[in-house]
Design brief:
By secondary structure, the chain is of the alpha/beta class. The protein has 2 domains: 47-152, no CATH class; 157-357, Rossmann fold (3-Layer(aba) Sandwich). Helix content is 48%, strand content 7%. It has helices spanning 9-18, 47-58, 64-78, 86-96, 112-123, 135-152, 157-165, 168-171, 174-179, 204-215, 231-236, 239-246, 260-275, 295-311, 342-357, and strands at 184-189, 220-225, 250-254, 279-283, 314-316. Strand 1, helix 10 (204-215) and strand 2 (220-225) form a beta-alpha-beta unit. Helix 13 packs parallel to helix 14 (295-311). The N and C termini lie far apart (92 Å). Residues 1-16 have low confidence and may be disordered.
Length: 358
């Protein structure tokens, strides 16, 4: 109604017709909205419901939401293609919600024999899946969840560095390490230099760098990494260029040298570092089993040693030092020998700190 009391609806309708528009139809307030669809539950016999039912029987004192969270995490860990992204997001969500979703928090054994027994029990209950659900796969998935949750909860390379500084054996190194000049250290390497893998709370070299940083706050380091990195890939994917732009004083290189192209590429990387006055170090390997049946790797390490001798670099033959550790066999992770558990990384972090201390 306008101020005169006359209706204006017909004029509005006429204007809308001129514009080629029409009023929307009146809302039918008697129509009921359809209910939102319920989330689909995983089919019976798939890993998550099987694990949740098993946990209800074996950990009846745990909260139902914690049991469901652990079952979801384990199923996603079994799907190894998504454990680097989606699984990490789910860890953060569950921790933010305050859920206790680790095997240890639910009172389960977390030693390898205990996890394997659980895996054997669950593998016998689950139906065939498009991914591995054998006993060892369950064992590895449960261990991944346990170790990754520890890392997300704060036991990471920063915590490892603090632990190392409290060790009596490193007390004698502190004055020498603290007296070293502040440096910019670059790390060029494959996954054995990376702290994100589930097998370790922190890589050996990044943990050692954090020790240096705690002793000398002006110390800086930066990592230029990729899983399975070779010298050729490091050049092709721009990692070397980024490293050089960062202008470090020293560089530590641990890459997979598999063929002649990789050897040529490594020689080029060394030449470019030398041209920028970067003190370079080539590391042979930090896995005790790295040379097992691998004549090509022994040849690659001979090449690296000779390259350092020729170009004025430092060859760190770390791999053989495992013989000093009586427990080195326990460093090999379940399901493969590509990576290494935290105690092995801590051993080689100590070796690097000894090298730095002189």
């Amino acid at each position: 109604m306008d101020r005169t009391g006359r209706g204006i609806g017909r004029f509005a309708d006429r204007g809308l017709r001129r514009l080629g528009r029409t009023r929307p139809p009146p809302r039918d307030r008697t129509r009921r909205h359809a209910p939102a669809p319920r989330a689909a539950r995983p089919p019976a016999g798939s890993p998550a419901p099987v694990c949740e039912a098993w946990l209800a029987a074996r950990a009846p004192g745990a909260a139902p939401q914690d049991r469901a969270a652990l079952a979801n995490l384990v199923q996603l860990a079994l799907l190894v293609q998504r454990d680097g992204d989606l699984l990490q997001e789910l860890f953060r969500v569950y921790l933010a919600l305050g859920l206790k979703a680790s095997p240890a928090a639910l009172g389960l054994p977390v030693d390898l024999p205990g996890l394997l027994r659980i895996g054997e029990d669950l593998a016998a209950r689950v139906k065939p899946c498009p991914f591995d659900t054998g006993p060892v796969a369950w064992q590895a998935a449960l261990q991944k969840v346990e170790l990754w949750l520890q890392k997300h909860a704060g036991r990471d390379r920063y915590a490892l560095a603090a632990e190392l500084l409290r060790e009596p054996g490193l007390a004698a190194l502190k004055p020498a390490l603290a007296a070293r000049p502040a440096r910019r250290v670059a790390v060029l390497g494959h996954s054995m230099t990376m702290s994100l893998h589930w097998t370790t709370h922190g890589s050996w070299i990044e943990t050692a760098c954090e020790v240096r940083r705690l002793l000398e706050p002006r110390f800086e380091y930066a990592s230029f990494q990729a899983g399975g990195l070779t010298p050729a890939r490091a050049l092709r994917e721009g990692l070397v260029e980024r490293l050089l732009l960062w202008k470090p004083d020293e560089a530590y290189v641990l890459v997979f040298v598999g063929n002649a192209s990789d050897r040529e590429s490594l020689a080029e990387i060394v030449a470019r570092m030398k041209a920028q006055d970067i003190r370079f170090h080539l590391v042979d390997d930090v896995r005790p089993w790295a040379f097992e049946g691998r004549d090509d790797q022994q040849e690659a390490h001979r090449f690296q040693r000779e390259l350092c001798a020729r170009e004025g670099g430092v060859f760190l033959d770390f791999q053989r030092r495992h013989a000093q550790a009586p427990d080195w066999e326990s460093w090999r992770p379940v399901g493969g020998d590509i990576h290494m558990y935290t105690p092995g990384h801590l051993f080689y972090a100590r070796e690097l700190l000894k090298f730095w201390a002189g």
